[in-house]
Amino acid sequence: MADGLQINPDKELKFRLELKKQIPTTIRLYNPTAAELAFKVKTTAPKKYCVKPNTGFIAPGATQIVHVIMQAQRDWPADVAGCKDKFLVQSVASGGVTDFTELFAKGKEGIKESKLRVAYTQPAPPPSPVPEGEEDTRTEDTAATAQSRMPSDVPGLQRELERFRIKNESLSADLNASLRTKDGAARGFSLLHLLITAIVAFIIGRYL
Fold first, then answer.
1. What pairs with residue 67 in β-bridges?
2. For 66, which of 18, 171, 173, 178 is 20 to 30 Å away at the CA?
3. Distance of alpha carbon 141 from alpha carbon 60, whole angstroms
4. Quick check: is 146 in a domain?
5. Which long-range contacts (CB under 8 A, 24 or more apart) does 63-66 make?
6. Which residues pair with 69 in a beta bridge?
7. CA–CA dist 205, 208 (Å, integer)
8. DSSP symbols for 62-77
9. Does some domain include residue 199?
10. Are 59 and 161 in a shared domain?
């Protein structure tokens, strides 16, 4: 904190770094003294940051918000882990003088300075595409949908399959009796019997 002018933050200016976006932050300047103070904000990287206002006057007991915007970055800075950019906040009692060149002339006595280093922070994580609690609901809905697709009358289906099996056995017995003496026909029946048996097994395995 500079003598006279109170600066917040007073040591580190943080930017929530995101690529291809302008990143804003603020500096709060408060004048707790009984005299009007003039201020000036400088940076070591003027092409990278936009400062508004970068100069001005603060009445006794008043506050001035300085907006700092970091220009959109196409690539991650090489010094992202330890940025070397800095800001310098200068203040001095105006004494009625309005010329900033005169107020902040190099070597002039009474100028107070405060340095702020730049720090990058990670952006907030994106919101989850599935709201909290909805994932469990979807699981329940999936289970309910699968349940609704199951046959509603399982005992009735079992009885139908049993009657089909008995009828198939009776038909097989009649065909065996009539085609027992015909070897070629018997082989054809065996293939027919295997086909019917496979269909019955598939139906039973599919619905039970």
1. 26, 52
2. 18
3. 65
4. no
5. 63/28, 63/29, 63/30, 63/31, 64/28, 64/29, 64/30, 64/31, 64/39, 65/26, 65/27, 65/28, 65/29, 66/26, 66/27, 66/28, 66/29, 66/41
6. 24, 50
7. 6
8. -EEEEEEEEPPBSS--
9. no
10. no
Write down the H helix ranges in 21-153. 100-103, 134-149
Q: Which domain holds residue 104?
A: 6-121
d(CA 118, CA 107): 26
pLDDT of residue 195: 72
Q: Mind listing the pLDDT tens digit for each residue in 67-106?
A: 999 999 888 888 888 899 999 999 999 999 999 999 999 8
User: Any idea which residue has 């906040």 for tokens?
Assistant: 89
In a domain, 136, yes or no: no
Same domain assignment for residues 101 and 174: no
Q: Is residue 1 part of a domain?
A: no
Give the CB-side neighbour count of residue 96, counting CA atoms within 13 A.
0
Number of domains the chain contains: 2
Check residue 31 and give its pLDDT. Answer: 97
Output the CA torsion sign for 91, 95, 100, 102: negative
CB 2 within 8 A of CB 107: no
Domain boundary among 71, 98, 121: 121
Q: Which token pair is 44? A: 């070591």
Strand order in the sheet with 86-93: 12-16, 112-121, 86-93, 37-43, 55-58
| pLDDT digit string, tens, across residues 4-34 | 799 999 999 999 988 899 999 999 999 999 9
Token pair recorded at residue 193: 């019997």
